[in-house]
Amino acid sequence: MTHSTTIRLIEPTDAAPIAVHRARDIEAFRRWEPAQPADYFTPEGQAERIDALLAGHKAGSVWPGVIIADGEVIGQITIGGILPQPHLRRGSVGYWIASTAQNQGHAGRAVELALRVMTDDLALHRAEASTNLENLPSQRVLRRNGFTPYGVAHASTFLDGAWRDGLLWERILGD
Length: 175
What we know:
- The chain is α+β, with helices and mostly antiparallel strands.
- Helices cover 32% and strands 35% of the residues.
- The chain is built from five helices and seven strands; from the N terminus they run βαααβββαβαββ.
- Strands 1-2-3-4-5-7-6 form a seven-stranded mixed sheet, with helices on both faces.
- It is globular.
């Protein structure tokens, strides 16, 4: 695991490097992510998406972050679906790492750091995540960070031309 990996809140200037990664990795991520329109893979499309994420952050429903290694944006990590109410206090973690930076421990470290944000900054009690049933690398990242699987969401996401099942994950963050 590389401990030089950091995360921070996404910024409008992250649009261009994210677009480069997303355009290059269209085929690599096809199995794991929903299809997107062509403009999604452009700096302009990413700038619009970042603006929407930052609006959600301002509203308290999302914490959108980027993953940094050696001073460069290499991926994203997002805490979405934040429910801060005292009787709920949960959020869902999602992430991706550029193909050029995979298998170097960045995802595991980013999830570890996001769990700290969830506990220390957002005061959440429960972390959730979902993976495609075949996404074993992502499942290993979650297991290493204390998540356990708790169910299957059948036909929950349309990916690569078909409805796919998702494996649901949870971790209790503490009281």
